[in-house]
Amino acid sequence: MRSTTTRRLRLGAVTVAAATAFTSATVAAVASAAPASSGPLTAGLTGATGLLGSSQAKAPLSTWLSKKWSTLSAVSPTTVLVHAVDVSTARRAAIASGLAVRDSYDKIGVVVAAGLPRQIDAVRSVPGVTYVEGNQPIDMFLSTSNTATRGSEARATLTGSDGTALDGSGVSVAVIDSGVDPTHPFLRNTDGTSAVVKNLKMVCDPLELLPCQSVDAGSLNTDLLAAGGHGMHVSGIVAGRDVTLSDGTKMHGAAPGASIVSLSTGAVLLIVGADSALNWVLEHHAAPCGADVPATTCPPIKVTSNSYGPTGGGEFDPSSATVKLQRALVSEGVVSVWANGNDGGDGSANLSNPPGQDPTGGIISVASYNDHDTGTRSGTVSDFSSRGRSGAFGTYPDVSAPGEGITSSCRIYLPICTTGGDPRDNGDYNTISGTSMATPHISGIVAQLFQANPSATPAQVEAAIKATAWKYTDGAAYVSDPAGNGTTSFDKGHGLVDVVAAATAIRP
Asked: What is the pTM of this model?
């Protein structure tokens, strides 16, 4: 496989509020007046509900929303996530403050709401409100080398607890991305059915007035509807079935027996759309196709694959809805896997994807490894792979996986698929690079590990991957990991994932 130039799908969409923003001076004047207890809005809310108290300390704004505050429109609603001690409090607070509630994440006490700056400021003073988060734009992080990971070897030599080949059978992977074509030959089972057992389109109102809705798209190509291609490529890396291309190349994904639940958020991502997908997984992971569909047909979701995040990385925000959702998922037995980003770096600054920095066991961030198209385990860290800040261990990626020059499923008419440097079989396959390609390797490998030990916890899965990682030597030196599991580095984490060693370690 040929390596290609690093690609990124930059999602340039902004909120309606930002697109129609007034001047900073005008908005600042409006915003500064909003918190005053004598203001008409605040006074009216106090009289009507009794919720607002002048002595209540304001709940903090997220860093992104704080930075954007002066640019928010004074006339067009801005979408925010209101966090509170429980969802009822969050909903009452939002309504009392004049915000329009669009959606709720019931298990983590968050509502998605929209309003003007003065209303957003007012909700911060309602008792029980703990945090107000902005609807931050995020990017997709744009290579299969199952030889370097020893994934093919594990499938050929090891079995799961069910006695079948270690290929991820009995596990569904939730791919939160631009979408998928369930009819693609790389995702077709030998009986003609699709590896995609559930194909959802997250439909979010562009005016941000209504909640995001999950629509069952059946066999439709949701990647075409999203004008994407990124999700198609990622899904093949997770669970591509055995195929032989017209040139004789034999391929399969990391977990060719796993099932996929695709949640299409479209090619344009804002954090609310992605969080709505995570919230759907939180509420449906045990029976993603419905309680009446047996697990043999539609297995439980045990891992989410997330190849998106803000450009340039950033500091970890434990108060964000994303983190609350992934921690709730971990508590219910679901691993979250994150692309570490494509911003490169030299260790002088933290460029890692924020949610992947979560120290909670079972939340895994992935750096990109280059096997130079040979399957070697003595390769290099991809230049584009985001680095953490040297000495700040919490910012380091957890592990490396192949992400450079990865061939997987595409459709030539999809924008991302046209960026690949090696189209094959009429463009149904192409070669693309990025931590987006490294992440689904790990997502599929997690499925293999759960097949090896269905009773394993997310923390045990992460620990097995870290403790057994292959110490390839390119890049920064390994140093002792203060959290345990041997040694780590700011560019490649604990090393290159080793499926045979990890699966052996996690067996009951």
From this structure: 0.85
CATH class of 16-135: alpha beta
pLDDT digits (tens, 9 = 90+) for 57-91: 899 999 999 999 999 999 999 999 999 999 999 99
* pLDDT attached to residue 49: 33
Torsion sign across C-alpha atoms 324, 327, 331, 334: positive
Name the CA dihedral angle for 69, 71, 73, 74, rounded to a multiple of 10 degrees: 70
CATH 3.30.70.80 range(s) for the chain read 16-135
> Rounded CA gap, 163 and 452, in Å?
9
Q: How far is CA 260 from the centre of its chain?
A: 15
* CATH node for 139-506: 3.40.50.200
What DSSP line would sit under 199-247, residue for residue? EEEEE--TTS-S--EEEE-TTS-HHHHTT--HHHHHHHHHHPPPEE-TT
Instruction: Enumerate the CATH 3.40.50.200 domain ranges in the chain, comma separated.
Output: 139-506
> What residues in the chain have per-residue pLDDT under 50?
1-54, 143-144
